[in-house]
Amino acid sequence: MTGQAIRKIVIVGGGTAGWMAAAPLAQRLGKACEIVLVESPDIGTIGVGESTLPTILTYNAALGIDVTDFVKKTQATFKLGIEFKDWGQVGNRFFHGFSDFGPTIDNRSPHLYWLRLAQSFKNMPAIENWSVSAVMARQMKFAPPAPGAPGVANGYTYGFQFDAGLYAAYLRDYAMARGAQRIEGTIVEVEQHSETGFITAVKLKDGRRLDGDLFIDCSGFRGLLIEGTLKAGYEDWSDYLLCNSALAVPCAKVPQMTPYTRASAQSAGWVWRIPLQHRTGNGHVYSDRFTTDDEAARVLLEGLDGRALDQPRQLRFVSGRRRKTWVKNVVALGLAAGFVEPLESTSIGLIETAVFRLLQLFPDRSFQPELAEEFNRYMGTRYESVRDFIILHYKVTQRDDSEFWRYCANMPIPDSLSHQIALFRETGHVAVYDRDGFAGPSFVAMLLGLGIVPQRYDPLVDLMDMRQLHGHFAGLRDAIADTVQRMPEHAAFIAERVAAAPVPGLAV
Ligand SMILES: Cc1cc2nc3c(=O)[nH]c(=O)nc-3n(C[C@H](O)[C@H](O)[C@H](O)COP(=O)(O)OP(=O)(O)OC[C@H]3O[C@@H](n4cnc5c(N)ncnc54)[C@H](O)[C@@H]3O)c2cc1C
Known about the structure:
This protein is α+β, with helices and mostly antiparallel strands. 35% of the residues lie in helices and 19% in strands. The chain has helices at 16-29, 55-63, 67-73, 110-120, 132-138, 164-177, 224-229, 293-302, 347-360, 369-395, 403-410, 415-427, 440-449, 466-485, 490-498; strands spanning 8-12, 34-39, 77-79, 81-85, 93-97, 159-161, 181-184, 187-192, 199-204, 209-211, 214-217, 234-236, 245-251, 261-266, 269-275, 280-286, 313-316, 320-322, 326-327, 330-332, 338-339. 48% of the residues are buried. The site of flavin-adenine dinucleotide has 38 residues, from helix 1, strand 2, strand 16 and helix 9.
């Protein structure tokens, strides 16, 4: 014990990031220190962010959240991955699923063996036929993986698609039940220690003053403390990630709730479709250098599956990250820390990572600078690996039907990504820089899906007898088909097991 323990944490912001921080902090520290979250009644939350990664299962499990209760209260559906439509070239369709392509063979990735078969047989089916989640998605099936079951019944994972407002409310109830306090007010002034520059308090419009030892900045894009006061600086990635605008609109739900998010490429960006139990979320992410807001709204509204439930809401952003997200006694999370456009639904995952990393490296009031350095190093790697993965989606394209896609095909990219693409093109291998980020099968799904055909395959693969190899892939495909065929439809699984209460006025 140092006698220097943090006595009070102030969380600035009550959006998804604020409550995602408050919940685990209250669970772990609620009895040891005061946790206060302040949110402004005048400044709204971003109101989007409804598609997640499987890492949310770990976050929920750490909080002891019951899946059924969670799904019911957030109007959630299950997500097996993302269907990509018209990426790489118009007419192309493939699935980036949350599963690998079967077990390793002789300790080597199965896609290396698939590549040998694909080079030998012209009609080799696409690799996603060996992804359990892709096969489930195509057949609109869902069942959770069976823990302990052998083989394919356990060879996938999933995330959720949920209502962002209900998600924040769910975590708010959780955090407040464990001692977190909520204050409504707008911060108009920030006090700093005259010598150290550490933040000592924030002042609200109504004159109240909130002091604290540790401040968590979840104030959204503005980064009230981390940028407004501490001037951390922003690394702008918009030369590689051109999209800087979005229009979001909900529409009435359709009877077939897909167990996946859809991302359809457009001439100056892409459109998302996220099915929830009570409605469908839609949005058009685009670059205002290459299209107009009116044209983007037209593309969005014409593509809706159901009746629009509102007017499209405009959002602007700049992909990039704060140079440092922990400065002095301020740690920034969520949009205050950075934002890589939402193509692979990574923001909530980065909030999970950051809040757990903060708990691992939790400071006392001496705020040893090495803790901040380690946090910044680690989060920097995480953001950069997400950046590279998203740029890949744009860079690897044969589309030349618009100025936007011609720019993407020719734009310079980070060296780390150039290496990744060249390595795969020449050898079929992938480089995983960030062990906590997207794994090898995600790169394989995207690189092959976008149309790269490796020139060679791994020479050690030839050590396996061709007939044996055939038998392995044929047997696995049959096992996947058999397992998936016995699963319930996604919509039926929800209706029977986890249906939320109907929302008046939101009929089909
Ligand atoms: C178009 C788009 C689509 C997205 N889709 C996804 C997705 O599918 N999946 C995903 O993981 N992420 C997605 N995201 C990102 C996701 O929305 C955010 O990461 C998440 O909602 C966290 O937002 P936040 O809490 O950081 O900020 P906000 O929601 O903006 O909250 C900011 C909070 O700070 C408060 N505040 C601000 N200033 C003050 C002040 N002066 N005083 C007091 N309080 C203040 C506000 O009142 C508010 O409560 C998307 C983002 C965009 C732009």
